[in-house]
Fold this sequence. Notes:
One of its GO terms (biological process) is ERAD pathway. Residues 16-185 form the UDP-glucose:glycoprotein glucosyltransferase thioredoxin-like domain. GO terms for molecular function: UDP-glucose:glycoprotein glucosyltransferase activity; unfolded protein binding. It comes from Timema poppense (Walking stick). By secondary structure, the protein is mainly alpha-helical. It has two domains: 11-121, no CATH class; 135-190, no CATH class. 45% of the residues lie in helices and 9% in strands. The protein contains seven helices and six strands. The strands form three sheets. A two-stranded parallel ribbon has the order 1-6. Strands 2-3 form a two-stranded antiparallel ribbon. A hairpin with a 2-residue loop joins β2 (14-17) and β3. α1 runs antiparallel to α2 and α1 (36-47) packs across α4 (90-99). The chain is globular, with a radius of gyration of 19 Å. The chain starts with a strand and ends in a 19-residue tail after the last helix.
Amino acid sequence: VPLKPYSSSCVCPQLSSGSVRVGLLVNPRHNSGSQLLNQLVLAALDTLPPNQASHYISTILASDSLSQAISSREKDPQDVVVQGVDLSNLTLVWQQFKSDFTTLNTHQTYSRTVLNLSPGARAVVTNGRVLGPLDAGERFTTDDFSLLERFNMNNYGDKLLAVLKKQGDEDDVVTSDILMQTVALLVSRTQSRSRFEIPFRGEEYR
């Protein structure tokens, strides 16, 4: 029974890469002030294919001056030219996000009432488990996501997939949504652990 990606109705737009889907929840520190950059990111995730959205958003966030220019209305989405990214519909969707705060308010409410995050706090949510809030200046890098994926699959992902395949009919397809929801139900109990670094004793151990 193959495992295939399946697009679900989630409160957060999603990017996908390999066997991992990454979504975004916006949790601004203040309701006041410009939310143009947040709204542009949400519009890009809603409009562009995953790879294009990732490329476009990364280009903007990699430049503080460009991010600030968008937040201050000095630049519009079409001013950010990224090779291979079609921006024909992005500006229209961005205008809709700017005039309708429903999506942004939903993200804020979910972050604070369900995830128990204070305004502006950052965290990573994986299969129903909240990792965070992250400390100020703490980064959750691509390597961290790779390790997290490996940890999840080694601990329960592969095992649950095997069980679901065994219990289902030959024609049944185990979607990533089914696997995600099953894992979330089984591992959603609260855990509290701190991140720690492993010191290297010498070059020979690197």
